[in-house]
Every structure is written in structure tokens, then in C-alpha cells.
Amino acid sequence: MNRPIRVLIAKVGLDGHDRGAKVIASFLRDAGMEVIYTGLRQTPEMVVNAAFARRCRCDRVSILSGAHMTVFPKIITLMNEKKLDNVLLTGGGIIPTDDMNKLIALGCGKLFPPGTDTKEIIGYIKTEVSTRRKDINI
Fold this sequence. Notes:
The chain is of the alpha/beta class. It has one domain (about 5-135): Cobalamin-binding domain (Rossmann fold). It contains five helices and five strands; from the N terminus they run E-H-E-H-E-H-E-H-E-H. The chain has helices at about 20-30, 45-55, 70-80, 95-105, 120-130, and strands at about 5-10, 35, 60-65, 90-95, 110. It has a five-stranded parallel β-sheet with strand order 2-1-3-4-5, with helices on both faces.
């Protein structure tokens, strides 16, 4: 029997706008995923430690503060240190396309701008996690 995909949703930094993160948490739950919402003002270390401790298969970081070029690389580094190579790091928010491409080149998964169809996000997470589940090491 397949367990539901466990997704960690985090708001990193001082950004206090969490409506989008809560909406995403709701539709991921409706899609059958187990969602852990860390709340506001998380550090990259807190996000990675929570994903490790709770054996999450997907970290989804919401960024509206403009700190994405600092936050995502730090999370990628910490995930690599903890050998979380089978955990999908994805996210969304107000991130310019050029920056999205740079972050993907660093090892981040697909990043979604505001207004992305929920079915696209759900489909992406399900597809990516199923390919990574074959060799889970956490």
C-alpha cells in the first residue's frame, strides 16, 4: 500500500504573508497528500531539520520577500549535507523567471509563480516524488 506523499510547507524569513501557503496546503491535502505547515518565520535550518525529522518527501517553500536567491541555495546546501537527495525541493512566490532558472540549475525543483493551476502543482509533485521514492535514504 502506498503511503500519502508527506509535504512540508514553510515560510522562510520575515515574510508574514501566508495566505498562499495555506491555500496550497489545503489543495494538497484535498489531493490526498499529508501536509505539515511549519508556520511563519522559519530559517533554512529549521525547514531542513523538520523535513528530515518528519521524513518528508517534498519541501515546498513559499517566498514573497525577494530573498529567494539566498534562501533556496542555503536549503539546497543543507539538504545535501543531510543527504536528502530524494526529497523534492520546490516552491513558489514572486520569483523572476531568470532567478527560477538559476535556482533550478542549482538543484531546486520547479518553482511556481502566483496563479499557477493547482493541478499543475499537484501533478508535478506526484510525478517527481514517485520517481524519487525508488531509492529513499531518509
